[in-house]
Design brief:
The protein has about 220 residues and is mainly α. About 85% of the residues lie in helices and about 0% in strands.
């Protein structure tokens, strides 16, 4: 039971840290919309948002193996040593991809690694959603409703992260055009629309994370 408390605390802490730090990325991204800021300042804000988002992404990666350890500690699902090792291996590779991508910011390598990460997130999200929904509906393979709900919500977090990335992609073309040809109402409108789509997805992920953290918090008592 002591290990369950430790893993539950670490699990909740990762969610809280993720949420707290990523709010900085949210604010920096929102400020890029202001056309009164010069191009250099807006570029710096984009960089700040990208760097601030690194820690939440690391928390995201570490939540997977710590969550598996928590499931084992609470005995809500029988875990094999192989499954535990696999979860930590996936988490370790994910962390490496994030760190290498952050170090290669602005280079083709970073863009390619982000695509790899998005593909992984799509399949992982589908797996958690299906696993959680099936457990909630049938009580198998997880018969603990709280954990099943967390699995389902965690799967939605993957998709919200993908939606934020996809939503922001139309931002880059008009922003690059501003650097070359200057600002126009049409370009600013396209930039605002892309950022707004990303912010909505980010806000949705915050609600999901806060909900999962709340479930984890109440499990401590």
């Amino acid at each position: 039971m002591e290990s369950a408390f430790v893993w539950s605390y670490v699990h909740v802490l990762l969610f809280v840290l993720w949420l707290a730090v990523d709010l900085g990325a949210f604010i920096a991204t929102a400020r890029v919309k202001n056309p009164l800021r010069n191009y250099e300042e807006r570029t710096k804000l984009i960089r700040v948002a990208a760097m601030a988002h690194v820690l939440p992404r690391l928390c995201f990666a570490l939540i997977l193996p710590t969550g598996v350890e928590l499931i084992g500690a609470l005995a809500v699902y029988p875990l094999t040593p192989g499954l535990r090792a696999a979860s930590w291996a996936i988490g370790a590779v994910w962390v490496i991809v994030i760190l290498v991508s952050a170090r290669a910011y602005g280079k083709p390598l970073a863009a390619n690694l982000r695509i790899v990460e998005l593909v992984f997130e799509a399949f992982a999200g589908l797996s958690f959603v299906a696993y959680g929904l099936n457990s909630l509906a049938t009580g198998a393979p997880i018969d603990d409703a709280a954990f099943a709900a967390k699995l389902f919500l965690f799967g939605l977090v993957f998709w919200a992260a993908i939606a934020a990335d996809i939503g922001l992609r139309p931002f880059y073309a008009p922003f690059g055009e501003i650097a070359l040809e200057g600002s126009t109402p049409e370009r600013e409108e396209a930039i605002s629309a892309a950022i707004n789509h990303a912010l909505v997805a980010m806000a949705a992920s915050y609600v999901l994370i806060a909900t999962i953290a709340s479930i984890g918090y109440f499990e401590l008592f």
